[in-house]
Amino acid sequence: MINETCYRIFQFGLLCAVALAGGTGLTQNFAPVAENVTFDQVQTLPHREPDAMVAYGDNALQYGLLWVPNMIANAPLVILIHGGCWLNSFDVNHSRPLATALSQAGFAVWSLEYRRTGDPGGGWPGTLEDIQLALTQLERLSSYSIDLSRVAVAGHSAGGHLALMAGADLTPAIAVIGLAAIVDIETYSIGTNSCETAGPAFIGVSLEDGPELYALANPAKQALHPASMLLHGDNDEIVPLDHFPQDLLPLSVVAGAGHFDWIHPGTPAYHLFLGMLKSRLAQ
């Protein structure tokens, strides 16, 4: 059964996080928009440049872009894992508007790049190993004004899959959040949309030929972090809400929200996410 922390039809401009976060819900420079935004709308959003690029490994793709909020000491940290069907045709740069908005809201943000399907060493299990490695390297952020005792891991889409898998072992994490996450990779990979068909390419074999690999890569069959949760839209055609058991984890559903609403700072879905972060990472 869905844990309905915020399940309702949002009208244009109505921001759920007003109640959750105790503020106006508006993020500076990001105008409110209706639900079900497109990827192109996300890519054209304004953003500020990161404050640093912090490597977590020796490979050229093992780094994260870091935003640190101005005038805030010891800011809580959000580790972002971008989506893109695990494919190297989608990189970390489309996370810049989301990271900008979260930093304006008072969070430090480390948005991770990683090897993906199509990169040497990418795919299963190398992609997950990159995220796992990054989460062991938080001390590389210690020179910045960041409170490393208040950490949330959040991933979108395929990044949500990676967040759930890698976040299971991150002791300091206060929350592990899947945003429109691919949760049951076995069920998902037998679908026919362009992202579902990327599942076998990521694992390197079909479900029929490698069921044991899919089981190892499936958050629905792993022991997850006790603070794991899912945020999803019921209008998501890329990662359908019904591809995983809805009693698996605490789940909040935004009616009308599409796949990319979670990474667009003007949507009601984003403001639900923001409210969750504020409530979980508050001092």
How big a fraction of the residues is strand? 15-25%
Give the terminus-to-terminus CA distance.
31 Å
Helix coverage percent: 10-25%
Please summarize the sheet with the most strands.
Answer: 8 strands, mixed
The total number of structural domains is 1
- Radius of gyration, in Å, reads 17 Å
| Structural class computed from helices and strand pairing | alpha/beta
| CATH class label | Alpha Beta
Multimerization status: single chain
* Number of helical stretches of at least 4 residues: 9
User: What do we call the CATH homologous superfamily?
Assistant: Alpha/Beta hydrolase fold, catalytic domain
Which residues sit in consecutive blocks of at least 5 with pLDDT less than 50?
1-27
- What is the chain-wise order of helices and strands? HHEEEHEHEHEHHHEEH
- The best one-word shape is globular
Quick overview:
24% of the residues lie in helices and 17% in strands. By secondary structure, the protein is α/β, with parallel strands linked by helices.
